[in-house]
Structures are given as structure tokens and as C-alpha cells.
Amino acid sequence: MGMEQTVLIMEAHPCEELWRRHADRLLLYATTLLGDRAAAEDALQNVFVRLLAADALPDVDSPGPYLFRAVRNESLNALRSRRAGPVRLFETAADPRDTAERADWARRVENLLPVLPDEEREAVVLKIWGDLSIPEAAAVAGVSEKAFEHRYYRGLAALKEKLGDSHE
Amino acid sequence: MSDLEDRLTDLRPLPAPTDLWDRVTKRPGSFRVAIATRKLPGRLVSLPKDALLWASAAGLLLTLYVILASTPEVAPAGPAAAAAFPQEPSTEVLEKLRAYPHKILCESNRDGNWELYLVGMDGSAAVNVTKTPDVDELYPKASPDGSRVCFAADEGKPDARVRNLYVMNLDGTDRRKVADNSREPCWNADGTAIAYLRAEFDKFTFSDFATKGIYIYDLKIGQTREHPNNSKIHHLYTLNWSPDGKWFVATVHGGMGFKHGILAIEAEGAGVYDLGLGGCRPDLSHDGKQITWGHGDFAVGVADLDLSAKPPKATNIRNVVESKDPMETYHTDWSPDGKFIAFSFGPKFKGKNLKGLLPEFPGVEAPGWNVCVADVSQKNKFAILTTDGKSNKEPDWVRR
Q1: What domains does chain B contain, in order, with CATH numbers?
Q2: What is the pLDDT of residue B64?
Q3: pTM for the full model?
């Protein structure tokens, strides 16, 4: 009787790769939606717990937008009236040579993002730090590309104006 | 892209906390499924395909585990790692069990089909009590007098799968349906009623916590009633009914205002209390004064239980078995006299498919898993009852 061997391999779950690629950006997005870093971590955790519990990865062409949509739904479900002031969003200690200037820039953006209308802030976050295309980001936000572009550029303009004001 | 967009893009998101992924994968008792925080050996073990060699494969797994457990490169972290672990099954416990009158029911997948098997303590071959090649029977719960069993059955074509509940005599006769699209049944103390959880969705899922509401089926009159607080009850699993009939005890996962916990739920009221036990899948002793549960993925927990206290409380928490990654423990069950605890024991494999990935879920294949029995009076003393490693899980004692 031949001994045909089936090799069982300990391998990383494919979700881990998604986590490595998207976790930081998803967490930033959830933080801007919830205004609370800990609540955002909970939302991100819940999304990946469900993903791991599923039989297989979601059958989608592009997992990035799928994950942003899932985090958006989870965050909106969890959203209470907890949105408060600015929260830390950006890394600033990576390069000690420009830490002060970089930190100042990061703090100013962090302080101004909560001031933007929700829809404009979401558009800016998805496009800039979510690294999504306009069609992908529009799908996550659940609006047409045209409406999304409108929100995005209005948000960008508001940010520019406020950054200019705060700079003066 | 504008200068502003450039400058904004230059800001990098704060990294996610290094422990957040661990929190995802090590959520107590539920979905610690995929990623070890340390590097595991690339190839765990080779298993023969030939069915006749499964028994030796199970032995190989056990032997391999012993090797892994003593290999510095795979030394596990966590408190369980520090505890002594038996290098081989306890012959002392096995000897005690030889004279033990009771038997154990479990689910097992020996030929691609799930059946319920009755396992004796005398080393005799397990007996298939369902014998239905087209239906997958799972999650057996023996009646208090040991004469009947209620269980789940996954039926229908793959695209129209549904988990239903049945009850039958232990010899397979008088099989009757209890409920459609439901799961996780348990008996009341006198064997006249079966409580169960209705599935949350019409679409089939293996997720045991996908439930909504407690229902009670009266075997005498064949009628079903709801828990009075059912609108607030969801995402429970591993339902137990206290011997005095006043309490349900179950795990909750992401529902009823709890993230995860083992709850005491008033059977005829709205009271819900967290027993404060980390882990899942509880089982009440037959006198209702003790509880065992999966204390994490690698330990069999035991505690004294006082459901008459206000609020109900569990004290004197300790572990009877502590295992090591990747060998996990689930599905604990008290023997009728409270001297032993049966549990499922085996390795968790990593991969994209459910097979071997989620052995704790009823109906998910679990290569290398066997039913064990631990002596409650000692630590890490247990016998391995089944040896073929063919997804032997969900043990339930049968009073004889």
C-alpha cells in the first residue's frame, strides 16, 4: 500500500496580508469618523474578527475599498455622540531631522480636520490617506463620483483656507 | 495634484497598535484562528491520505506535539506554557475510567459524513448511533436519564443547507424534529423539555453565535414557547439550563450589550448577568453547583457556581487542563457525578479553508481532534478516548 502524503502547512491567514497593507489607513479613517482612537480600534477589530470567521476572503476584485466600506459601516453603527476634539492621526517621529516642523504640520491638520463638515472630511480622508481612486472612494462613501469630487474639492479648499488662516 | 495634496499625502497615518492584530486573532474563545505571534515551523506534519492509516496519523500528531512542546524554537508564551503537561495520556485516569459505567456521545466525521458516536470507557469500538449518510448530525446532548439524545442535523443541498434540531432514542429509534433552522440545544432537568437557540439568518452559517432568541420545546405536548425576554436575546451559543430550571447559562458574542462573555440569564425574567469568566462554551455540573468552560483556547476551566446569589457568581476559578499552542481544548462537559470532565483536544491548522481552522465550530472538520477525559481532582491528568483523530468533538456524557 503506497503512502501518499498530504502535507499540512502552517501558513499565515490571508487576512494577515490585508491587515499589513491596510490597517494603518483604515484606523485613521475610522478615527476621523468616530473622533475616538480607542473606538476606532474596536471598530477595526470587529471588522477583522468577522473577516476571520468567514469561510474565505470576500470575493471582490479590490479588497481595499471593501475594507473601507466595512470599517465605515462598523464605525457608523458604533457612532455615538462621542465626537470630541482633535485626535492624533499622523506619525511624526519617523524622521528626527524634521520632527518639529513635521509635528507642527501634523497637529495643524489634526486640529482642522474635525472642523470640516463630515462629508467633506470623509472625502479628504478616503482620497488622501485611504489611497483610493475617486471611483473607489465614491463607492465607499455611497455617492456618485461627481458628488464625491464635489465634496473632496470643497473639503480641500476649506482645509487650504483654514490652514492659511491658521498660518497667518 | 496640488501642493496641498502633496503635503497632506506626505503625512503618514499613525501605525495601528502592535497588539491590535493579536486582539483580533486571540479574542477569547472565538476567533483565534489564523496568525501565531511567533514563527511556527513551516511544515507541521505529514498525514497519510489512506483512511486506514488515520489511527497511526493521530498517534503521529500526538508524538509530534510532544516533540514540539519540548522544542525551544516553538516554546509558547502565556501562563499556560509554564504549567506541566503530560507527555503521554494518563494510564491512571484510563484505569479509573475502565470501571466507569457512563458513556460519551460525540460528533465525528469518519468518511466525509458527520455522525454521532457512542464511546464506552472500556476501549470497545465507538458505535454509530445515527447512520445517515446524507445528513450531518452534530452537537449531541443526552437526556438526563441517558435514554435519548437531542442534536443538530445539517440537511439539504449545499446551496440550501439548513441546521435543524431532532430528538431520538439512543438506539436511533423514534427520531423526531424539534425545530427548523435552530441550534445549540439543551435539556431541562427532568427531560421533558428542550431549550434551543433559533438561527439568526435563513442562510446557513457555521458561526455558532449567529442566533436570535431562546425557545423551549415541550416534549409532552409538542409545542414551543419563547423566552419572555426574547426581543433582547441574541448572539448566544452553548446554551445550558440549570437543574432548578431558573437559569440559562450561555456564551454571548457581540450582543446583548456585551462584547464577549459567559452569561447567566433568568429563565423566566429579564435578568442577565456576566459571570466574569474569560472564555466560552460553558457546561453546568449536574447539580448546578459547578461550571466548566473553555478558559481561552488552551485550558479547561472550572469554578464554583452560585446561581442563587444576587447577582449570580462564579468563584474559585482554576484550570483542570492547560495545553500549549497549537494543541487546543474545547467543548468541556461534566460527567454525571462531577468527577471527570470530557473535552475535545487537537491542533488548529492555519489556512484559507475552514477545515482545521475553526475546530471549535460544530460541523467544521478538525483533523487530529479527539475526545479526552480529565480527572477533576488533578491537574493535567487526562485520558484520550478516541484515537483516530477524525474530528471527534462536542463530547457529552450519557448516564448509564
Answers
A1: 51-398 (2.120.10.30)
A2: 41
A3: 0.60
